[in-house]
Amino acid sequence: MRELIGHFPKSLITAAIIDKKGKIISISSGNVYPPEKCTDPTAHSEVDAIRKACKKIKSCSLKGHWLYSTFEPCPLCSSAAVWAGVDGIVYSNNPKYRGKEDNWSFIPCQEIIKRSQYLNKTKLHKDFLIDETKHFFLE
Q1: Tens-digit pLDDT profile for residues 57-66
Q2: Could you confirm whether domain 2-31+40-100+107-132 is CATH 3.40.140.10?
């Protein structure tokens, strides 16, 4: 997580897929900021990290891998992680510390995971190292 946090302030949200041994398989800072330059509204950091990892391991299953993100994954990213079959999601910052960012419609990651348990028994660790990331959107 600290490696991802190190991408700030260049990137507000950075995500990675980590294997069982703790090795980073893929890392992404996404392509949706600034919005006026965005050409793919699904190119969030988490989705991009999932795509890169699947391509690298030549499989759409990320069983045995974890998604790490510096911010709570949105419903799109949480759903993509569940569909990819990650063993778990670890995130740091959360919408409470969104600051002046737009208040997008937000369904918590925990809710997506809870409602998806028939697909995958995804584990969740939230607010991990939050004291190191809660200032990201407040500056």
Answers
A1: 999 999 999 9
A2: yes
